[in-house]
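User: Hi! Is it possible to get a structure for several chains at once, not just one? Here's what I have:
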Amino acid sequence: SQQGEEDPQALSIQEGENATMNCSYKTSINNLQWYRQNSGRGLVHLILIRSNEREKHSGRLRVTLDTSKKSSSLLITASRAADTASYFCATGTYNTDKLIFGTGTRLQVFP
Amino acid sequence: SAVISQKPSRDICQRGTSLTIQCQVDSQVTMMFWYRQQPGQSLTLIATANQGSEATYESGFVIDKFPISRPNLTFSTLTVSNMSPEDSSIYLCSVLKTVSGANVLTFGAGSRLTVL
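Assistant: Yes, the chains can be modeled jointly so their relative placement is included. Here is the combined structure:
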């Protein structure tokens, strides 16, 4: 399968703590994206990092990309109960419009 | 970004029946994608729906089981045919937007199907 792997599968933290999720993929990519899904609903795009970038920030989100290791991480700082959701990485390649989604991390933030 | 209305939001279906899911976009889009998300799993692409041509199906998905229509640039339907309990999933439509040369997806809220 070309699907990316994410770890951990599940993560439980207290409000105010940081949450880190990791994504590994198998093919050469053009970009890597992170999406959020609340309670089995539709996914919402969070942030995109290109293959020639190493780090990207957006608000409380920080994404890193290591193309030599074919891995990425998403850091959510100062987490809130409202951050409780599933987070998916998705990779885009040069020769197709399709995105391949990772296995996802379920994040639970306790107030 | 595009706003996608998907319906039904959920349904409970009997084995052997078929259900059609509708996806309406508030702007014209070239490519629409249909994904399946089985319980507790990630998203798997079913097919790409392009207006004016046959849908392109991914490995493991066939037109007889998942017929797709794309009559215009703002609408698509996915039918799940002859359903079995294994078809219980969330079905999601999405549209492509190009942001600074990269493809980003906008999703509908999903249709949660339970097959008894």
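Chain B touches chain A at residues 4, 6, 31, 33, 37, 41-45, 48, 90, 92, 94, 96, 99, 102-110, 112 (CB under 8 Å). The longest strand of chain B covers residues 89-99.

User: Great, thank you!
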